[in-house]
Amino acid sequence: MDTNGRYFKAFEKRVEALKGQFNSDRAKRQHAKGKLTAWERIELLFDADTFEEVDAFVTPEAQQFSFGTVEKSYGDGVIVGHGKVDNRLVFCYAQDFTIMGGSLGVVHARKIAKIQEMALKMGAPIIGLIDSGGARIQEGIASLAGYATIFHNNIHASGIIPQISVIMGPAAGGAVYSPALTDFVFMTNHTSYMFVTGPNVVREVLNEDVTSDELGGAEVHARKSGVAQMIFEDEENTILGLKKFLSYIPSNNVDNPPYVESNVATPDINERLRDIVPDDPNKPYDVKDVIELLVDKNSFYEISEQFAPNIVVGFARLKGKTIGIVANQPKVLAGTLDINSAVKGARFIRFCDAFNIPILTLEDVPGFLPGLDQEHFGIIRHGAKLLYAYNEATVAKITVILRKSYGGAYIVMNSKNLGGDFNFAWPTAEIAVMGPDGAVAVLYRKELEKSEDPDAMKKELVRTYREEVANPFVADEKGYIDEVIDPAITRMKIVSAFEALQNKWVKAPARKHGNIPL
Prior knowledge:
- The longest helix is centred in the N-terminal third of the chain and has 19 residues, at 3-21.
- The chain has helices spanning 3-21, 24-32, 38-45, 106-122, 141-157, 177-181, 199-206, 212-216, 218-225, 235-246, 287-294, 339-354, 372-376, 379-392, 407-412, 436-443, 445-450, 454-468, 472-478, 490-500; strands at residues 52-54, 78-85, 88-95, 126-130, 163-167, 170-172, 184-188, 193-195, 230-232, 301-303, 311-318, 321-328, 359-365, 397-406, 422-425, 430-432, 483-484.
- It folds into three domains: 3-246, 2-enoyl-CoA Hydratase, Chain A, domain 1 (Alpha-Beta Complex), CATH 3.90.226.10; 271-434 and 471-500, 2-enoyl-CoA Hydratase, Chain A, domain 1 (Alpha-Beta Complex); 436-469, no CATH class.
- Strands 10, 11, 12, 13, 14, 15, 16 and 17 form an eight-stranded mixed β-sheet that branches.
- It is an alpha/beta fold.
- The model has no long low-confidence stretch (mean pLDDT 92).
- α12 packs parallel to α14 and α16 (436-443) packs across α18.
């Protein structure tokens, strides 16, 4: 046999050995847990026959271990590469739990770091399909250094390319910080979980029995901690949800978001908008009904739906173009702003601003949520994050005041003097320092105490306050809003306003960076 023949035979032997790692026994173990294999996830995410693997044949670094051993395998428990998702370039790494529990050693980390750097160089999104037991104990500090390199790359790429983490199994210890540094976290119910210290440590240290799901499952992070923005019931739907999400965002910070033409025409004038806000100012309604009538049909993609539902954020399309939406939700906590909603809104606004996505704000906010817990846990500091994010954002920003807009919350929700480009109000808007009841109680306390019929007097004063002080025409006449509009033409107005703002450019001041109140 000639030299070339020997080399080709050796080449084929390596290819067969690599294929042999992904055998049916390993796949069955994953499937028994309700999980897909790393390759099945990749095949579901990428367009057919477009994924190109990088570093498939690397092996764990040869070294002497004083504690434990390392499985000799090709790829070192992670698949990395690039391909097309809906014909757009995307980079990806997928940890393989069937090989050493997807644990991260020095070579494993080096592969992830390489693909992160390639994604940044090419200006393409990077997706991490995470299914890992964490740092490889046998490799000691080398595995910790590997995580540090990954975190460094996460931070370096932040705001330049979209970074998305999809938790598809465990993410424990240091493994949780890369997802926390990325832009969005997707999780799958009952099969994925994240925590800094696991149930065993909690049991040993605090003597508390808790399951992985209770400690850091998808529901916990979607509802309570806010770490996960999206959760789905199975891995197939998680990846399909991820693919839909990618259709809204650009590939990098100098691209515009993708244009997607709707198959269904959406009317620019819709009289149904006139009837959504109730006559009773204390009666709730669902702001999502407003959103659905304003944006292209079936285009609204909500983010963090279960966390801080008193504010609604998400992507939608307007005449085929992506916009970000931030809306107070009157049906939850009357639409008040609290700690969680302020942080949720601020984080979303900063993503939109980083990636050239215009922001539409729909406002109906009576103020900040009062109470000891809110004050003691820092509503002032956290509320300032939302204010900072709006003011710092240089993308096109439009606000429509649907109903209540009181006090500091009026300022925070992209008011004109905070930097709103176009600020509109419906005739139902109430704009004032505080609500009519509170204002009357402060201004006419002595008169009400002396009145023979304080209830009747208060009712009349509240009516007068609404008509003479809190109505939107006062703000319109003083130039604090641009126009009071017929609700029916709201879509037409915001389409025109965004078109006028499409070439908006703001010169940033010369500084290293601002100091957002974290």
